[in-house]
Design a protein that fits this description.
Blueprint lengths: L6 E9 L3 H11 L4 H9 L6 H18 L7 E19 L5 E17 L8
Antiparallel strand pairs: 1-3, 2-3
Length: 122
């Protein structure tokens, strides 16, 4: 297999929201150009979009500083979410019982790719 060197990745490991809520925002930016994705995240009504935009900005700066990519040609190839740790708390209930409260954390992975521009010779 041939390695593709035009990929850049950024991972945000402990984001305090459930993966299900975060997946909605990540699917929203998938396939878009990086600057368009950042603009859409800025005007999104979801609270978690701020953390996703931080991760996208981190991936853009990785591409610019570590790999010398042109940031105008970057687009979001993949944006996916995984489960991380789960904080467990308990709430007192009737008759001396306790019921668990699960506070999940998530992990965001953003992969950017540089699109090569095709030259047309006349």
């Amino acid at each position: 297999m041939e390695k593709n060197n035009s990929l850049v990745k950024a991972v945000n490991k402990n984001v305090r929201t459930s993966p299900r809520k975060l997946a909605l925002v990540c699917n929203f930016i998938k396939g878009k150009k990086a600057d368009v994705a950042l603009r859409d995240l800025e005007f999104s009504r979801k609270r978690i979009s701020k953390d996703v935009s931080k991760t996208v900005k981190s991936a853009i700066s990785n591409a610019e500083n570590n790999h010398q990519f042109d940031i105008d040609n970057l687009f979001v190839k993949e944006a996916y979410v995984g489960k991380s740790l789960v904080m467990k708390r308990f709430r007192p209930r009737a008759k001396g019982r306790a019921s668990p409260i699960k506070k999940p954390f998530s992990r965001i992975t953003i992969i950017l790719e540089e699109k090569k521009q095709k030259r047309v010779d006349k």
